[in-house]
Specification:
Number of helices: 9
Strand content: under 5%
Structural class: mainly alpha
Distance between the termini: 57 Å
Order of helices and strands: HHHHHHHHH
């Protein structure tokens, strides 16, 4: 298989894994993601400066981490999220203004921020916000970047001990998700996130 074929296979398996998540056994989804990662790694063995392969690798690793977090009693996706950060960072070394690489970086930071309850979680969430801001600098209408930014601001709010600061961050999260909905009023993810934030804001 050449590089392009490996990337197509990796992307198709990633999408299959996402579709399987709610309807298949965990072991089947794990195997699908494993095969996706193997395909992308084969692409990188042939062309280790391929930006898209690193971005795809980061996305698959995050999905593997999410699967581990959702199926284990103790969340253990941290290693996958850190590996995703490495993949995104490598992509940015090769293409310093790639919006998708910044998105994967922000996505991984957000997931790390959700794993912890300490100052470390706050640091990760702030890094997520900064990463997706860079993505939005490159692509101002990048809906997924607004979703991650909104999620990170929401998580930052949850971590605050000050009620006024918590509400301020919740409001910023809501404004961010509203921006996503201006771009794509039918985004199910944005609609769901908005409802979640409104629930948090409500007394």
């Amino acid at each position: 298989e050449n590089v392009h074929a490996c990337e197509i296979k990796g992307d198709a398996l990633l999408r299959l894994g996402e579709l399987q998540t709610n309807s298949s056994k965990t072991e089947e989804v794990e195997e699908t993601y494993r095969q996706a990662l193997d395909a992308v790694n084969r692409a990188l063995e042939q062309a280790n400066k391929n930006v898209y392969s690193y971005i795809l690798k980061g996305h698959i690793l995050i999905k593997q981490g999410e699967l581990q977090d959702n199926t284990a009693r103790i969340k253990n996706g941290e290693e996958k999220y850190r590996l995703a950060l490495e993949a995104a960072s490598r992509a940015l070394e090769l293409a310093s203004e790639n919006a998708y690489a910044f998105l994967i970086k922000g996505y991984a930071f957000l997931r790390l921020g959700e794993l912890f309850q300490t100052l470390e979680a706050e640091i990760f969430c702030r890094q997520a916000v900064e990463a997706v801001k860079r993505a939005l600098d490159v692509r101002p209408e990048f809906v997924y970047a607004y979703l991650i930014k909104g999620g990170a601001l929401l998580r930052l709010g949850e971590l605050q001990t000050s009620e006024s600061r918590r509400k301020e961050l919740y409001q910023q999260a809501l404004e961010t998700i509203n921006q996503a909905l201006i771009i794509d009023p039918n985004s199910r993810a944005a609609i769901t996130e908005k409802q979640n934030i409104i629930y948090k804001i409500a007394p």
